[in-house]
Design goal:
47% of the residues lie in helices and 15% in strands. By secondary structure, the chain is α+β, with helices and mostly antiparallel strands. It has a 5-stranded mixed sheet with strand order 1-2-5-3-4.
């Protein structure tokens, strides 16, 4: 049989347990305000990073599949590209962010312009290619001599491929249900 503890021993263990609980609560309370401050600092930094453009601009629309991109090209810029109020590399993954800048890289004027892009519809890849198409069109209105270079790379061609519509009696656009003999 287990030994019975005296009342003084049980009171001492209760006191120790309450002290430990109080210490844990204090530690948790100390940590909470620190985390909130860090979150506030991060949101402030993000707000400062987004650049607002002003002045004259050249605009064009680029399209791909169901995605559309409204592009504004500001002359005398520093190379900032903003997509839907986020930086280019924040909005698009790394490989698609480079797709957006391809027309500027081909004419070696990556740091000469600030660009604001609003993209809607489609997937990430289609949005990136729509933005590329729009940037190429704005560069063309800026300087007509760039047509040969941009046309050769295929940036001015609007890619007409779209998803084919589903037909009645079929499961997809062309996929038929399984044929059965009887």
């Amino acid at each position: 049989m287990p030994e019975k503890k005296t009342t003084t021993e049980t009171k001492e263990t209760e006191k120790k347990a309450t002290k430990e609980v109080a210490e844990i609560k204090e530690v948790k309370e100390r940590k909470k305000p620190v985390k909130k401050e860090k979150k506030e600092e991060k949101t402030e930094e993000k707000e400062e990073e987004v650049v607002k453009f002003s002045g004259k601009y050249i605009k064009a629309i680029g399209r791909r599949k169901t995605a559309g991109a409204q592009v504004r090209l500001y002359e005398k810029g520093k190379g900032n590209i903003v997509v839907n109020d986020k930086k280019n590399k924040e909005y698009f993954p790394v490989d698609y962010a480079s797709v957006v800048t391809q027309p500027l890289k081909t004419i070696d004027r990556l740091r000469d312009f600030d660009i604001s892009i609003i993209v809607k519809g489609g997937g990430v890849r289609a949005q990136a290619e729509a933005a590329r198409h729009g940037i190429a069109r704005t560069l063309l209105t800026l300087d007509e001599d760039l047509r040969e270079v941009l046309k050769l790379e295929g940036f001015l061609t609007r890619d007409p491929r779209k998803k084919e519509r589903k037909k009645p009696g079929l499961k997809k656009a062309r996929k038929a249900p399984q044929w059965s003999k009887r």
